[in-house]
Write a structure and sequence with these properties.
595 residues; alpha/beta; seven-stranded mixed β-sheet; five-stranded parallel β-sheet; 20 helices; 56% helix; binds adenosine-5'-diphosphate
Length: 595
Amino acid sequence: MTLKINRFIVSVGLTVLAAVLRIWPLQALGSILVWLTFYPAVMVSAIYGGLSAGLLAVGLACFTAIFLGPLLVDESFIKTTADWIGLAVFILNGTLISSIAEAMRRANAHARQAQAQAEMSNQAKSVFLANMSHELRTPLNAILGFSNLIGQSPGLSADQRQITDLINRSGEHLLALINDVLDMAKIESGRLSIDKAPFNLANLARDVINLAQVRAEEKNLELLLDQSADLPQLVHGDAAKLRQVLINLVGNAIKYTDHGSVILQIRCRPEDDPHRLWLILTVEDTGIGIAETDRERIFEPFVQLSQISQHTLQKGTGLGLTIARRQIELMGGQISVDSTLDQGSRFRVEIPVERVDETVIFPTATNRARVIGLAPGQPEFRILIIEDQQENWLLLQRLLEGVGLTVRVAVNGLLGVEAFQAWRPHFIWMDIRMPVMDGLEATQRIRALEGGRNVKIAALTASAFKEERDRITAAGMDDFIRKPYQIEDIFDCLTRHLDIHFLREESVADTAPTPTADRMSEALADLPDQLRQELNDALVNLDSEQIDQAICRIAELNPHLAGQLKHDADQLAYTAILRLLNIDANDSTDEVRHE
Ligand code: ADP
């Protein structure tokens, strides 16, 4: 309503301004070009206010010229027939201008409405996807979690183990598909964002190789990792995306290769800016290759070269390379492919990353040895699970009770708040979507209660969207774990927030020194103290250059030992070397160790 009145006010204002101009500074013009003075007022009024405002300006201009003119100026604006024709042309043109402006305004309004609608439907698509992913991930969590648990039980027959393995793998494949489709949707709606943090490049590469190893072995392929010696240990970048890209490329290379090898090669290239560098990652296979005409096409969504896919056992979604390319571009990099049919392909990825000051010690990679219990001498830890879905809380309850934690379950937020008041747990696992009261509200209520600020709360969420994570943090939760989770994630999260220590299973071979380890520890003990200290410091500081230097110096005294150390250092078995350096009789016989 105000907008409507505004347009008329603007129209009147502009016409009055034009009239004042004409009557005062332009009076000397007399009746010459009267209408030209008013055209700008008509045009601006029509563009701003549409047909009605434009016509009002035309009407006011005519009124001024015909009736007010003679009263205010000496020489009337309209005297001759030509002046009257000019008036008629002005009215006609003014009406035309106003109509065109109105048409433009309407088209504009339609476009804005269509855009708003598109945004709304995009929003609706995102909500739908978030919900769908939640619904799919929740049961998948139970499938993966329970098959994992069953797979770990000792009394399984070979047959049963194979079946649980199959369930697990199928579940993981399904999860990969869900993630692909979701990633694609996120890319389409522009929601994919970069999450940078320092990460260990060698660990990431090794993880990718470890993950792909089983499949390479199944196909009798050689899977190799080739890293240049000048690679920095830590870089700053989006590790999760880089990992996904590499898993994808290495996975494809194995999928489309029947004989020979797959090599993941990592090199770096310095940039002008000393704080930055380019990572050059290539994945080379000796597989079926890609025809030249298809090399660009394979990066398009859902493109699968049909003659190839028919022969492969593991069918994909045809989205892998599309997602990889978009992720690489988002990180500021690029991907290209080079291939010869029937000989193999070579995918090359270049990504800019930032250097990290390697003197800062970052926590070493989590030890993945299985948690088998609580370290002795610790107080009771009360853990509350607030989760409505039985398959989910049952899984978590089994896991936690299995290692000796005291667990209670509440099946909705309200019961959870009551359980907190009555039982005072140390830690709460909080589901987000629950009937009666959701996890966000339950957290806020608990935080408002006496003692509610001290309890650690971690969300268990199946949502893949960052907004949900932001809401989780805003509600006052300390952490979150994404479903489906790995068993390790649960224990890692508890370790992050509680002063809790777990016992981990370590194979005898890992801890008890093997004859080689025995010999190595003896040889290490024979080294000069200063050199031992130097190696020790280099390992503790994760300083690969310093480690190499120390090993070089050891090589002058004991080349055999140096060779062994170099091998272990290349495998990043720093902890093992440290243990050998400080080896004492008690450590060597322990089968379990405190985290
Ligand atoms: P998919 O899920 O089918 O693997 P991608 O987007 O990852 O989807 O790959 C698209 C297509 O590109 C594949 O279907 C395959 O035909 C071809 N392709 C990808 N990587 C290779 C490779 N290393 N060797 C031969 N062909 C490949």
